[in-house]
Amino acid sequence: MILPLTDQEDFNNQDFTLVPLQKAEYSDCIFTNCNFENSDLSNNSFLECTFIDCNFSNVNVMHTTFNTIIFKSCKIVGVLFQNCNTFLLSFKFTDCTLNLSSFYQLKIQHTTFSNCIMHQVDFTETDANHVIFKDCDLKQSIFQQSNLQSADFYSAYNLSINPSENKIKQAKFSKQNISGLLEAYNIRISD
């Protein structure tokens, strides 16, 4: 199916829960303060788009293309990113809330999460090689059979990663969050 092209358009203060976003290929568009909550964005294509202060909670992203996407200050709760189109998948998240979202079995190498709240996010079997988690709250996020090689957790906090269940070679941690690697062993650490 060939989608109509929407190029270099700005969408401001749109409520797509009332009038759904048209199925299209969106290129170099900016969405500011838009509400997509519970919307069906399946089979849409977003190329080099920016989303600022948008609500993406519980959005259906089945077969959705996200290529070179920036999310800034967005609420992205309960989104199953593993359902999106994995071809040329790339995005960056800054100041976002991603609670209860999932990157299960995705390849998200070189993705940057900066100053994000990421409670109970599922990274099971995710290839997160070289991913940066800068100042991110990873409370109860799940890392199982994940490739975290060369990932940067230096300023992340509330993390819990079992080194025997994940590939962590060359991953970066700080003295403050190193205890998150030992929780699985039920070891007590004193100051």
Structural commentary:
The protein is an all-beta fold. The protein is built from no helices and 11 strands. The strands form 2 sheets. A 7-stranded parallel β-sheet has the order 2-4-6-8-9-10-11, with no helix packed on it. Strands 1-3-5-7 form a 4-stranded parallel β-sheet, with no helix packed on it. It is elongated. About 30% of the residues are buried.
Set out the fold topology:
Elements: E1 5-7, E2 10-12, E3 25-27, E4 30-32, E5 45-47, E6 50-52, E7 65-67, E8 69-72, E9 91-94, E10 112-114, E11 132-134
Parallel strand pairs: 1-3, 2-4, 3-5, 4-6, 5-7, 6-8, 8-9, 9-10, 10-11
- Radius of gyration computed on alpha carbons: 17 Å
Provide the structure class: mainly beta
Low-confidence stretches: none
Portion in beta strands: 15-25%
Most strands sheet: 7 strands, parallel
* Sheet with most strands: strand arrangement: 2-4-6-8-9-10-11
- Give me the strand/helix succession: EEEEEEEEEEE
Distance between the termini: 60 Å
Helix percentage range: under 10%
Mean pLDDT: 94
User: How many strands?
Assistant: 11
